[in-house]
Write a structure and sequence with these properties.
InterPro entries: Vgb (IPR051344), WD40/YVTN_repeat-like_dom_sf (IPR015943). The protein has one helix and 28 strands. The chain is mainly β and 373 residues long. The radius of gyration is 26 Å and the shape is globular. The relative contact order is 0.11.
Length: 373
C-alpha cells in the first residue's frame, strides 16, 4: 500500500487545518440557509370563550358577509338526529374580530332546536329544525334582538338536518330519518323530496362544489358508507336515478361518512366518523359504483372525525369529537397537527374557516373556539 506524502505537494499541516475549517463553515452556513428557506407553519394559537349559561349543546356554525359568526344551539344532544322533546333553541352572534358574544337570539314558542345554520345573501339566516319538521328563517335585528323576525316553513313528514344553498339560491337539505334529499325554494316556499337510491343510507352532511354547482352528500349508515352527488335543477326536480353513489372503502363496521366539503381544487373531502379517518375524492376520477379517485388517511386521534373545512391555502381542518381535538392536515406533506381541548369538550359538527382562522363549537363544554394559524 502506498501512502501520500503531503509534503511532496508543499501542503503544510496548518494549511490543511485552514481548509478543513473553511469547508466546515461552508457546510454550517449552507445548512442555516436551507433552514431559513424551508417554509414552516406557525404553531396554532387557540382561543376559547364560554357561551351563555342559557345555552346548551352548541352545534352548527356559519359566517356571514358582515364578519359575524353564527352558532345554532339546539339545547340537546340529538338521538339520533333530533331532540326527543320540543325545546326552544337559540342562534348566537359572535363578533369575529373580537371573538366575543354580541347577541343571543332566542327562538319563539313555535320553533324548536336549530341544528345547522347557513347565511343567505339577503342577511337572513336559514336553519334546520328536525323536531319541528321544518326549516326556519331569522331576520336578525342586531340592535334589538327581541325585534327580530322569525319564520317557520313546515315540510310535512320530513326532518331536515344539514343544509346548503345551490347556485340558484335554493336550499337543499338531508333528511336522514327518512332517507331523502330535500329541496326548498326560499321565495315561493315550495319543496320537493327525493328518495336516496340505497335504502336506509342515512344521508348526513351536504355541500356544494363552487366550481361545478354539483351537490355532494354523505351516506352515514356504516352498512352503506357512501358519498353521493347530483346536479340540481332550478325547479328542484330530482329523480332517484339522477343521484350517483360512490362507495367508501370501509374500515370494519366503523366507517360512517359524516360531514364533507370541497376545496376549490377539484376535490371532495369528508370525515369518516367512527373510523377516525378523513378522505379525499378527486372529482374528475369519480365513477359511480366505484371508489375510484378516493384516498383515506387515518388520523392521529382516531376516535370520531366530525366537522371539516378547507382553508384557502389548501390545509384541511377537522374535529375529532370523541377525542376532544381540532386537527389540521396538509395534503402536500401529508402531515397532521393536533390541538387538544379540555376533556369532554366534544367539538362536533360545528367547524368553518375564514382566511387563516378556524372557528368551531364545543358541544359538551358549551364553548366556542377559534384557532389562528
Amino acid at each position: 500500500m502506498k501512502y501520500i506524502n503531503y509534503h511532496q505537494f508543499n501542503i503544510s499541516t496548518r494549511m490543511l487545518r485552514r481548509i478543513g475549517f473553511i469547508l466546515l463553515a461552508l457546510c454550517v452556513s449552507t445548512t442555516i440557509g436551507l433552514t431559513f428557506l424551508t417554509p414552516t407553519r406557525a404553531a396554532p394559537v387557540l382561543k376559547e370563550i364560554d357561551l351563555p349559561a342559557s345555552s346548551s349543546a352548541p352545534w352548527g356554525i356559519t359566517l356571514d358577509k358582515q364578519g359575524n359568526e353564527w352558532i345554532a344551539v339546539p339545547q340537546c344532544d340529538p338521538k339520533p338526529f333530533l331532540c326527543q322533546s320540543t325545546l326552544q333553541g337559540q342562534l348566537i352572534q359572535v363578533d369575529v374580530s373580537t371573538f366575543t358574544v354580541k347577541n343571543i337570539f332566542q327562538q319563539p314558542a313555535n320553533h324548536s332546536s336549530p341544528f345547522f345554520v347557513a347565511a343567505a345573501p339577503d342577511g337572513s339566516l336559514w336553519f334546520t329544525e328536525p323536531a319541528s319538521h321544518a326549516l326556519g328563517q331569522l331576520f336578525p335585528n342586531l340592535h334589538n334582538p327581541a325585534a327580530s323576525i322569525w319564520k317557520l316553513w313546515t315540510i310535512a313528514d320530513a326532518n331536515p338536518f344539514t343544509l346548503t344553498f345551490d347556485t340558484y339560491g335554493n336550499i337543499w337539505f338531508t333528511d336522514p330519518l327518512n332517507n331523502r334529499i330535500g329541496w326548498f325554494q326560499p321565495t315561493l316556499h315550495r319543496y320537493h323530496l327525493t328518495a336516496i337510491p340505497t335504502a336506509a343510507s342515512q344521508p348526513y352532511g351536504i355541500t356544494r362544489d363552487e366550481h361545478t354547482g354539483q351537490i355532494w352528500f354523505t351516506e352515514n349508515n356504516s352498512a352503506v358508507a357512501q358519498l353521493a352527488s347530483f346536479f340540481p335543477s332550478i325547479t328542484g326536480t330530482l329523480t332517484t336515478q339522477a343521484i350517483k353513489e360512490y362507495p367508501v372503502e370501509r374500515n370494519g363496521t366503523n366507517t360512517t361518512p359524516h360531514l364533507l366539503t370541497t376545496d376549490g381544487r377539484g376535490n371532495v373531502w369528508w370525515t369518516g366518523g367512527f373510523d377516525g379517518n378523513i378522505g379525499r375524492l378527486i372529482i374528475k376520477d369519480a365513477q359511480p359504483g366505484t371508489s375510484n379517485g378516493m384516498k383515506q388517511w387515518n388520523t392521529p386521534v382516531d376516535e370520531h372525525t366530525s366537522g371539516i373545512a378547507v382553508a384557502p391555502n389548501g390545509v384541511v381542518w377537522f374535529t375529532d369529537s370523541n377525542g376532544d381535538s381540532v386537527l389540521s392536515f396538509d395534503p402536500a406533506s401529508e402531515q397532521f397537527t393536533t390541538t387538544k381541548l379540555s376533556t369532554n369538550a366534544h367539538p362536533h359538527d360545528g367547524l368553518t374557516v375564514h382566511g387563516n382562522q378556524v372557528f368551531f363549537t364545543e358541544e359538551f363544554a358549551n364553548k366556542a373556539g377559534t384557532i389562528q394559524n
